[in-house]
Amino acid sequence: MENMTITTIDQLKEYSYGQIVELPAFADEQPFVARLKRPSFLAMAKAGKLPNRLLQSANKLFSSGSLDDKNPEAMNDMFEILDIVCDACFLEPTYEDIKKAKIELTDDQLMFVFAYSQRGVKALESFREQPQNTELARGGTAV
Q1: Number of folded domains that form the chain
Q2: What distance separates the 2 farthest-apart alpha carbons in the chain?
Q3: Does residue 49 lie in a domain region?
Q4: What gap in Å lies between CA 64 and CA 101, rounded to an integer?
Q5: Coil vs helix vs strand at 30
């Protein structure tokens, strides 16, 4: 702990710009790279971005990564929560831009963004068996 240095305001600003991340592809030869950030779900709830009716389902999903099997609306709740999570995570392109273009993310992409929102880049290792883009894997900026 003796070698720790204080994080500077400039570093914090840099973190707020998110990370360039390679998401699961739409299809072979169709990579999807975007800039994502990790949102604060407590701040989202406080700001009313997570509706009260979803708080219980969101809490279950965030804490255990699973659905509430006693809730008949669990699947609908999960998709609404994933929609909210994507809206909070996507910086470039924005999730609104994706939806306006009538692009529908795959289930893998939705779950990838959710995993990223919860645990950051380390959570993405389970989505990767081998690098999809060897140029990026050799030192590019995508994570």
Answers
A1: 1
A2: 52
A3: yes
A4: 33
A5: strand
The residue type at 21: V
- Cα dihedral 73, 75, 81, 87 sign: negative
Is residue 75 domain-resident? yes
Helix (H) or strand (E) holding 49: none
Q: Do the Cβ atoms of 126 and 115 come closer than 8 Å?
A: yes
Amino acid identity for residue 85 in this structure: V
For residues 123 and 116, the answer to whether their CB atoms sit within 8 Å is yes
Range of the domain at 68: 18-137
Rg for the chain, CA atoms, rounded: 17
Is residue 72 domain-resident? Answer: yes
Q: What is the pLDDT along the chain (143 residues), one digit of tens a residue?
A: 678 999 999 999 888 899 999 999 998 888 999 999 999 888 888 888 888 777 777 777 777 666 767 777 778 888 888 999 999 999 999 999 999 999 999 999 999 999 998 876 554 455 455 444 434 433 444 54
Residue 4 included in any domain: no
Q: Closest Cα partner for 91 from 126, 108, 125, 116?
A: 116
pTM across the whole model = 0.73
